[in-house]
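Structure tokens please, single chain.
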Amino acid sequence: RMPWASNATVLVGVGDHQGIYKPVRGERPLWDFEPGLHKREVAAYRLSRALGWDVVPPTVERDGPFGPGSLQWFVDADFDQHYFTMLEDDALHDQLRRLCAFDLVANSTDRKGGHVLVDGHGHLWAIDNGLCLHAEVKLRTVIWDFAGEPLPADLADDLARLVEHPLPSDLADLLDPFERDALQARARALLTEARFPHDPTGR
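Here you go.
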């Protein structure tokens, strides 16, 4: 059992590898998200893959020891690092901008500094994505340091492909119609604005 997690989070062996297993039965009820946050973990991975961004560790749905849940590849990271220490390294800023765009499009509602990991190859990963992809605007992320900057052209190209075509079926099937429409609307808005937004609430 992983300590400090608000929902049941278990480190498991998967063959010669390790994974993070989050069973549905270990979720705390929320007033604004339906039960089944594991599906949003999977959907976040599929969105990352659809964009070609590779920012969410491979995540699948599995029926594990405690029932259905999400199973995510365990990132062997430097756990002394977090978003705010990574921000001090200019070499990581392009990856952090990509994570910023991901959170905006995914409507990430719980992006804490410790939810950004760096592996031994210097690759950044976003974990704990169960609270995302809601139809209502619920953005809550620590990544605001690029506010006002132009959206990089390569990210814009990837977002354009997302809005110009139907969502991949494996992603669309995990979302309701309102969530699907809202996802593409957020991507379209970021493309239209062509720069990272400021937080008007100050929160």
